[in-house]
Write a sequence for this structure.
């Protein structure tokens, strides 16, 4: 059994890890920390887990984590970097669902995240955690920086194009939409039901932290700088990300469909839908799946790529468990077979 | 492997059966019928099942069902009674999720359902499918009339009181609220998002078909006629039933809590929450759980019982699979371990 | 022109007052206070008011209010009682949308609201602000304690019964459901969209502050103590209250319908729907209307009364403007003609 | 008083016309037709209009319309063209909210709308009904083809750019999102709450009927062919359109802001928000307003324009009443002052 500890168990990615790991046959959760809810029963905070976790949230101290084989950080940005050095030194694997180790350039990180990085020397050893991009590197890693929710959707939709040098114009537009759980479990006016229900808006148009993350990785693969206009929107639902990507490519829609299908032929968690499809985010709600559909409307100057994921599963906790499975040579789908809830 | 056929695969209870059975290790789904979608790929209609069902919907003919060990009817009322006689004669088990065999009195059935019953002689051999009420009878049955969604919630909330003769006044009030999936997958104006979103209303106050079903079963257990005022409401969400039950009882809240805890101590799918609890329907969304909480406000003349289930799982497809497990001596929880999605 | 000041302009009842008063032809809003948003443009906080209020929120000081003819308190409980004495002494009318002056017994108030009342001597001069109950008293009042949202719905549904002594059993059950805007504009986890969306629950079953308010007023009218079981629920929508009331009465449904129709024949804002009706909360969303429907299911032991209002309009800001109109001898409907938004 | 008839009174644009016209001081509604609901009370179908319309829906015959000064068509496509010739010949003004007269080229119309146009000779006299584009032409018109909902939002967001020749690349991308009321009041599976709630998707990526409408009008103004990639999405809310427009322009964001502010300085129903703004669709829910915000992220290669309207008001019924006011020399805002509902 893999001994797992979770730091930051009272956010939405934390409880999603608990939901998934509760039924994972190879895992024992030995500690779940929560600064705010220390001492409270897990099932009292999360009644959907009633009967599955008898224990309590503990304080986020090293002592509670040191017996673990692997520690998940489901914390706000800036926490994982404080504790990772000691855990890594103790030989523990660290899967960070926050953004602390995603950007390779510490100056860029500090600029976008507004704080000083306390262990920039560890950044280079962190492997970017998007399995479909970095499977073999992840297998050998000790520190994994899980991909963000938007970057997971956008990159899965662009990878086959970038890897195959099929873009004829570097100006990519990513119009992305997220459910409100993407904003986390925080007591903030802006994400009240009365504020976000029955309304739709764009936000952070002038710059969102997931922009440099996507640009860094796509540029790395393309071996040149990729330009991206990235506009996130808040949509009045709880779970789900829908990315609508606009690119210019040299190939026909049928060729492109083949490229995508071949690229993802062996990926259990990525499905390329038939031509003419329009995936709903509910197709993947609660599951670790990503669904992709391709279109070339009106003659084909612009190719439109539609991508859906569940931001809390493939965009966070599911991805993290997929990574853990890789680290321990378990089949990638173990614990991740849950189907999307419809309706 | 149990060979399963599903009649009526394109309604919400049908697809929910498909979702649950896809991961059931002892089941092989050999036929899924749909009058409307005959010949269409299952995954084309239900993209959440992509990759799990390669086949197509077939027409609802006996030939397609006769190889099955067990046939689930996820059909509108009036269909199961047409096909059940032939299936039963062929030795096949029938689990009917519709209402065709729920009422013991055929005249009463015809009055509430507005059609002639074509096989009233089978009604007496049908076992009412609420496992927590009828476990041992179900084990031996060939024809099961699964409990309705509202009746499941209301009866689980009242059983311990009735069985222990703790009501001092027969006038029970059941104020029940359901998500719109309870109305089914039908092209009707009244259940459009623009009609039901952001609005709340009561319906069928003068008489709902689940009223005689509940009264019949509770009266049977009480051995006298139970009076029930039953008011259903439509709430602007997709899944979930919340029953608020008002009763008058002779015992204190602490005694009652003990009675309920003991009654359900061995029931995996029923949880009696600690005193002071207020279950959300999301605690059980997507799972086969029922959660119950008890209150005696302001001195205790009236006891308030709160019950939540997912109408499509414990109120329909999950219950049906739990019954199938019983019929085949499989552990009741097999295929039904999925946890509620939160948030 | 009536000079109006609003204390507490950044809550949902505050902005609703601003929305209604913006188009009121006899009103000039001279000050809107907000502790949190002092100095910010009103339209920056409430972009739906763009172009209608050029000014800024000011701090809640007496100096800003003293030029007003009437001051609305749209504040949390405990604020109005601090400022009301000085305003009343200055001859200003005070319309309090909070609960500070609703309960006649200061000890009871302190017990339910958990603080010391600073001007209990003013309580007796406060008129309870439910126009349909207290029209003539309100006309002459200087201090009005507006009815709470739930009490408005429940009392309008019971008034004709109580006034005409038609109850044969004092045990009334009020199962009430509210949209989340009823919880206010507060940064609290429990009312995030991810927490309240797609879920339904009861709350405060053991005692809600609106219970003593309703009991006090109904008992006053009945001239004996009325017993009420009051169970509030949170429903996943933004606006609207639906009360389902269960009573026992000596009269037939047709007699009752007549009693209700006659009682409200001259009330513009209360509509008794035809028999067999089931009002949706959306029928009154954004309007000052109350709609009522009566039922006597299954023989009539229990009469079921359905009542819908918009909690922020007839349950708060609309009611307050209706009261202001009365105070100034303006037709009651002025500023309140807006129709419910459908869909 | 202007005598108004409405053809197609039981769709969402029909009831929205009724809601707006109920409070319009210069209008008398003399007939409301509905094929499906002929003979039924208007208030029975639309309980939000209780007490405002005593009459019944009548059948859609010429006799019922011929006394009107102006006839609104709130019908499915293909109906207005059947009746318009006779009405126009009788000197009646026709305001068509459907698409029958929007496209100047009858062949193009027939191709996109899949039917034969029965009065192509009238197309040239129809004035395109977007007041901010065609005010003076509308004033003199007898037949108006109201702009579609998406085209209203997209064109208001692009007009200042096109009129001032500020585009440096003709490849415009319009990523647009609509609430489900845009799909109309039709008994269709795809727009059930269980199908559209809590989910987000694109649709008609390969071609939507509003594409040729937008291209025709923008090209006319630009005096050259404008290329547009137009991707509509369905968002899980009832009302509202959010257009996110991506263009390339030669001017800075500050210059552009000035251009937009000047262009709309005298337009009551179009507000250019301050730089850095992100309009919510709820800012305009239930109102005839359009709000626009401009952004040039990351150096400015791509300019992002955000536009919000209520699809049923500025995108349909409100626009139509604004047009009627123009036709009768009434101030444009009469009947249209209702503020957006927040929250």
């Amino acid at each position: 059994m893999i001994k797992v500890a979770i730091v930051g168990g009272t956010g939405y990615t934390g409880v999603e890890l608990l939901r998934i790991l509760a039924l994972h046959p190879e895992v024992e959760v030995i500690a779940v920390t929560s600064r705010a809810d220390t001492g409270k029963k897990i099932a009292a905070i999360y009644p959907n887990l009633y009967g599955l976790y008898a224990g309590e949230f503990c304080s986020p101290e090293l002592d509670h984590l040191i017996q673990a084989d692997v520690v998940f950080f489901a914390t706000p940005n800036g926490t994982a970097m404080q504790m990772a050095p000691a855990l890594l030194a103790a030989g523990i694997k660290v899967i960070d669902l926050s953004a602390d180790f995603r950007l390779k350039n510490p100056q860029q990180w500090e600029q976008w995240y507004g704080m000083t990085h306390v262990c920039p020397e560890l950044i280079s050893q962190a492997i970017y955690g998007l399995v479909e991009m970095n499977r073999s590197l992840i297998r050998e890693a000790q520190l994994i920086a899980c991909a963000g929710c938007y970057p997971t959707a956008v990159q899965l939709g662009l990878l086959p194009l970038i890897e195959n040098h099929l873009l004829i114009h570097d100006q990519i537009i990513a119009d992305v939409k997220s459910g409100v759980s993407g904003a986390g479990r925080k007591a903030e006016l802006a994400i009240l039901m009365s504020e976000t229900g029955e309304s739709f808006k764009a936000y952070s148009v002038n710059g969102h932290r997931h922009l440099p993350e996507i640009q860094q990785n796509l540029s790395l693969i393309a071996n040149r700088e990729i330009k991206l206009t990235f506009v996130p929107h808040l949509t009045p639902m709880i779970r789900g990300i829908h990315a609508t990507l606009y690119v210019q490519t040299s190939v026909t829609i049928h060729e492109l469909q083949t490229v995508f299908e071949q690229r993802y032929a062996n990926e259990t968690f990525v499905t390329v839908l038939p031509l003419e499809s329009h995936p709903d985010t509910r197709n993947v709600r609660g599951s670790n799946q990503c669904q992709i559909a391709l279109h070339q409307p009106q003659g084909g100057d612009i190719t439109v790529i539609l991508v859906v994921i569940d931001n809390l599963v493939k965009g966070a906790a599911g991805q993290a468990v997929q990574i853990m499975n890789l680290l321990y040579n378990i089949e990638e789908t173990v614990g991740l077979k849950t189907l999307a809830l419809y309706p």
About this structure: Chain C touches chain A through 19 residues (CB under 8 Å).
